[in-house]
Design goal:
By secondary structure, this protein is mainly α. The chain is built from 14 helices and no strands. It folds into two domains: 79 residues, no CATH class; 130 residues, Endonuclease III, domain 1 (Orthogonal Bundle), CATH 1.10.340.30.
Length: 225
């Protein structure tokens, strides 16, 4: 692996490509505080998680337009209520034309409701669980989401965290390209070991720059063509 570049140099390149420091600053995402994460109700987390699952591979605006119907048929995404939905009730949704009738994702919603309810019961709320997870091991949270939930592997888990306001980087094509350009990775970081190595790089850059994971991820993406 090439020598790791100082984040200040990456930032300077991103600013230049974005039209200046002020223009780049406007693009940087904001993560929620721990208090704000804890204040979100569990049903809203399940709704966001399900929105991410159903949006994967589809036009996001189309799924968003249908979401009021999803809220209705999935009982407001109350985790315990959705977890208790019997098979016949889920099967009936395959005839519900107002939603996306994908059997695997419909079943995943019930599975995820049960998993979320279990975590919430153990930690005083799903938001408390997210809030307590340290930023310096965000890839560990990715692993936990993939293990405990359905259809949250790959980048779906990180994108869900972004939607929820939990600070996380995302390994998009541009971010991976930048990691290679600046000596932080060789090729695509695949597998747990490679992702943890990238985490250590982000931790080092965070200590150096003061930016959070989401912001560094955006800065990296803006530093390449």
């Amino acid at each position: 692996m090439a020598k790791l570049t100082k984040f200040a140099a990456i930032l300077a390149t991103a600013e230049e490509r974005s039209g200046g420091a002020a223009a780049l600053k406007k693009l940087l995402p904001k993560a929620k505080s721990s208090k704000a994460l804890q204040a979100v109700a569990d049903d809203r987390y399940l709704s966001l998680m399900s929105l991410r699952v159903f949006s994967a591979g589809l036009k996001h605006s189309m799924v968003a337009d249908k979401w009021p119907a999803f809220e209705e048929v999935f009982l407001g995404f109350a985790p315990k209520r959705v977890a208790a939905m019997p098979d016949e009730e889920l099967e009936a949704l395959l005839k519900e034309t107002r939603i996306i009738r994908h059997w695997g994702k419909i079943k995943a919603t019930r599975h995820n409701a049960a998993a979320l309810a279990e975590i919430a019961a153990a930690h005083g709320g799903f938001g408390a669980w997210l809030a307590d997870w340290p930023a310096n091991d965000i890839v560990g949270l990715w692993d936990a989401l993939q293990k405990r939930f359905s259809n949250l592997g790959g980048n779906s888990g990180p994108y869900f965290l972004r939607m929820a306001g939990k600070d996380s980087f995302v390994l998009t094509m541009d971010t991976i390209k930048a990691l290679n350009k600046w000596g932080a990775a060789t090729g695509e970081p695949k597998g747990k070991k490679a992702r943890h190595e990238v985490q250590q790089v982000f931790n080092q850059w965070a200590d150096e720059s003061g930016f959070n994971l989401s912001q560094m991820s955006m800065i990296l993406a803006r530093s390449v063509d």
